[in-house]
Specification:
13% strand, 217 residues, five-stranded parallel β-sheet, 9 helices
Length: 217
Amino acid sequence: MKNILLVYGHALSHCALRELVNADPSLHLAHEVGSVGEAIANIRKQRYDLVILDVSAPEKNGLETFCDLKQRAPELAILVINGSDHMDRMAHFIRLGCAGYLPYTASSHQVQAAIKTIAHGRPYLLPEQETLSSRHPMVHERLSLRELQVFFKLIKGQAVNAIALELAIAPGSVSVFRSKILKKMEVPNNAALIHYALAHQLIPPMGAVSKSMMLTA
């Protein structure tokens, strides 16, 4: 039996995903959590065959959460659910190493197929996604996973001390990572980082999340 961890999501979407997992006797929904901290705490204690990351919750940036999870467990298989159908947004997750990405327009059949395929150790990509990983690298893709974590927290406006506390590292380390980020991305300050993030769909566009309430039947 394959162990599944379900993270985040609107309540209705969450219930739908729970039913899809429970409908397959080869799968076991081991835990359901609502924060990245809870997810990481569970990952420390138990091995999972798949993490389903539902990015439909409007107050969360799925890319930031994805990076936080991958930094803690680089080999972890993550299926991103209820994401944007914008190809650039899909590409960010796929190029960062998700095992599968399904937009909010995905059918229940596609979701079931993706969960089962990835839980059994194989990636699941839609035909239109298969060429996304071969696109020319973008500037932020020069960053390490740890630098990406800091990057996503900087573009939210978090202070150095707050980032240090959240990542359990020294404030001085955050400052060093920030300097490396600015240098690698060739920008002068945090405002330029925010501008870059908005221009390249690294921050969910306003109103997009409201459409990702339910899995399409």
